[in-house]
C-alpha cells in the first residue's frame, strides 16, 4: 500500500487526498508498553511531510513537517500505517498474549450488570467487564445512555475510497513521481490508497449501489481538478462511497460494567486523521486504569476515571476534526485565499505561531500529538 500523504484544497467544497492510516501521540505510548516497537516498526511508515495542494493545478499551499520534526518535538514519530497491516499486527499481538478471538460472532444484546453478551447463535458469554468498540450507529450508545437515543450527525460530507494498482502509477511518467522519495514513500504492497472527501448533501438512502453509478459520480465530482489527481482518478476501476458522520458527544461512556470506546463512543470526520488513533489511546487509557484495580469492587472507580479523562480528549478531537473539515472545504473566494495566504510561512520555511492548517498549527499540534493522558 502506498502511503504518500497528499491532499488537495477545495474547489466548491471538495477535498481530495491519498493517505494511509495515520496517528501519533498516545499510540506511541502503547507500543513500548506492549513490547511492540519492532512489530509496528515493520508496518508503519514515518511520513516525512503532509502536503496540501491547490485543487485545480496542484500548487503546494501547505506543508506539515512530520519526520523528524515530530520525533524531535513530541518524542514520537508521526506514523502512517495501512489499516489492514495494523489490524493484522494487533491480531498477532492479541493472540500472542493468549486472547481468544472469535470471528463471525454477531452480538445481539448486552447485560450491563452481570455483565454478559448474547450472540446471534444464542450463546451467552460472561465476563468481569465488557467494552464495545462498534460503529457510529452502535446500539450500545443507547444502552449506556440509559435508553436515550444518540444518533450520529450527518456532516454534509462523504468520501470515495479506492485503491489503484501501483504498477499503473509507476508506468505513467506524469504521476510516477508520486511514489518517489523523499517526499513520498512506499510501504510493501501493490496498491495506492485514495480517499476523496467532498461536500455531499444527498441522502445516502438514495445512493445506488451499482459500480458504474459510483464511478461516474466520483469522476463528475472531481472534474477539472489538477491533472495529476485526474490521472489517478482515471486509473480507478471501482470505488466505495461512505457518508461521513460525527457522533454527538456522549456525557457517559460507562453503564454498569459496560464501557463504550472507539468509534462507538466518538466517531469523527477524518479531517484530523485521528479516529483510529484516539481509539488506540482509549485502549491504552483503560488498560492503565484497570491495572490499578486490585479488587473487583474498584472497577467502577477505575472506569469513572477513564470516562472522565477520555470524554474530554475524544470530544476535543471530534471538534477539531469538524473545524478542519470547514477550513479545508472553504469554497473558492476571499476566505479561501486568506487561508492560503496564512499558510504561506509553512511552505516558505519561515517560523510561524499560527496556521489555519490544523495539522501544522503549533497549538493544535501540541495538544493533539503531544498528549499523554496520565
Ligand atoms: C474516509 C475515512 C478515513 C479515515 N482516515 C483515518 C486516518 O487517517 N487515521 C485514523 O486514525 N482514523 C481514520 N479514520 C477513522 C477510523 O477508520 C475509525 O476511527 C476506526 O476504524 C474506529 O475503530 P473502531 O474499532 O472503534 O471501530 P470499527 O473499525 O468500525 O470496528 C468495529 C467492529 O465491530 C464490529 N461489529 C459491529 N457490530 C457488531 C455486532 N453486532 N457484533 C459483533 N461485532 C460487531 C464490526 O464488524 C467492526 O469489525 C477514517 C475513517 C474514514 C471513514
Outline:
GO terms for molecular function: FAD binding; monooxygenase activity. With 374 residues, the protein is of the alpha+beta class.
Provide an overview of this structure:
Helix 1 packs across helix 10 and helix 10 runs antiparallel to helix 11. The chain has two domains: 170 residues, D-Amino Acid Oxidase, Chain A, domain 2 (2-Layer Sandwich), CATH 3.30.9; 127 residues, FAD/NAD(P)-binding domain (3-Layer(bba) Sandwich), CATH 3.50.50.60. The protein contains 14 helices and 16 strands. Strand 1 and strand 2 form a beta hairpin. The N terminus is likely disordered. The strands form four sheets. Strands 6-5-1-2-13-12-14 form a seven-stranded mixed beta sheet. The protein has a three-stranded antiparallel beta sheet with strand order 3-7-4. A three-stranded antiparallel beta sheet has the order 8-9-10, with no helix packed on it. 37% of the residues lie in helices and 20% in strands. The relative contact order is 0.17. It is α+β, with helices and mostly antiparallel strands and 374 residues long. The longest helix has 30 residues. The structure holds flavin-adenine dinucleotide (FAD). Keywords: FAD, Flavoprotein, Monooxygenase, Oxidoreductase. Pfam families: FAD_binding_3. Belongs to the paxM FAD-dependent monooxygenase family.
Amino acid at each position: 500500500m502506498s502511503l504518500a500523504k497528499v491532499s488537495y484544497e477545495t474547489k466548491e467544497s471538495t477535498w481530495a487526498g491519498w493517505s494511509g492510516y495515520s496517528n501519533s501521540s498516545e499510540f506511541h505510548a502503547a507500543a513500548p508498553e506492549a513490547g511492540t516497537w519492532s512489530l509496528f516498526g515493520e508496518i508503519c511508515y514515518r511520513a516525512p511531510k503532509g502536503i496540501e495542494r491547490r485543487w485545480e493545478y496542484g500548487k503546494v499551499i501547505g506543508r506539515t513537517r512530520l519526520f523528524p520534526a515530530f520525533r524531535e518535538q513530541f518524542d514520537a514519530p508521526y506514523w502512517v500505517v495501512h489499516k489492514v497491516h495494523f489490524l493484522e499486527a494487533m491480531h498477532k499481538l492479541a493472540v500472542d498474549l493468549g486472547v481468544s478471538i472469535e470471528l463471525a460472532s454477531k452480538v445481539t444484546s448486552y447485560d450491563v450488570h452481570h455483565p454478559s453478551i448474547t450472540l446471534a447463535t444464542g450463546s451467552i458469554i460472561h465476563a468481569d467487564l465488557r467494552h464495545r468498540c462498534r460503529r457510529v450507529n452502535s446500539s450500545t450508545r443507547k444502552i449506556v445512555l440509559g435508553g436515550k437515543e444518540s444518533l450520529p450527525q450527518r456532516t454534509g460530507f462523504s468520501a470515495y475510497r479506492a485503491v489503484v494498482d501501483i504498477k499503473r502509477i509507476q508506468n505513467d511518467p506524469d504521476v510516477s513521481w508520486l511514489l518517489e522519495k523523499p517526499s513520498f514513500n512506499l510501504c510493501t504492497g501493490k496498491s495506492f490508497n485514495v480517499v476523496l472527501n467532498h461536500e455531499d448533501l444527498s441522502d445516502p438512502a438514495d445512493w445506488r449501489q451499482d459500480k458504474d453509478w459510483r464511478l461516474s459520480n466520483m469522476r463528475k465530482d472531481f472534474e477539472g481538478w489538477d491533472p495529476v489527481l485526474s490521472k489517478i482518478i482515471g486509473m480507478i476501476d471501482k470505488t466505495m462511497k461512505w457518508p461521513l458522520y460525527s457522533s454527538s458527544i456522549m456525557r457517559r461512556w460507562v453503564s454498569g460494567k459496560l464501557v463504550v470506546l472507539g468509534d462507538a463512543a466518538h466517531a469523527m470526520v477524518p479531517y484530523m486523521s485521528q479516529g483510529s488513533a484516539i481509539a488506540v489511546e482509549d485502549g491504552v487509557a483503560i488498560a492503565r486504569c484497570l491495572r490499578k484495580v486490585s479488587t473487583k469492587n474498584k472497577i467502577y472507580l477505575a472506569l469513572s476515571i477513564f470516562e472522565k479523562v477520555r470524554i474530554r480528549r475524544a470530544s476535543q478531537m471530534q471538534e477539531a476534526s469538524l473545524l478542519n473539515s470547514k477550513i479545508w472545504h472553504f469554497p473558492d473566494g476571499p476566505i479561501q485565499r486568506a487561508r492560503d495566504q496564512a499558510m504561506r510561512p509553512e511552505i516558505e520555511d519561515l517560523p510561524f505561531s499560527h496556521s489555519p492548517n490544523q495539522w501544522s498549527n503549533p497549538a493544535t499540534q501540541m495538544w493533539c500529538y503531544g498528549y499523554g493522558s496520565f
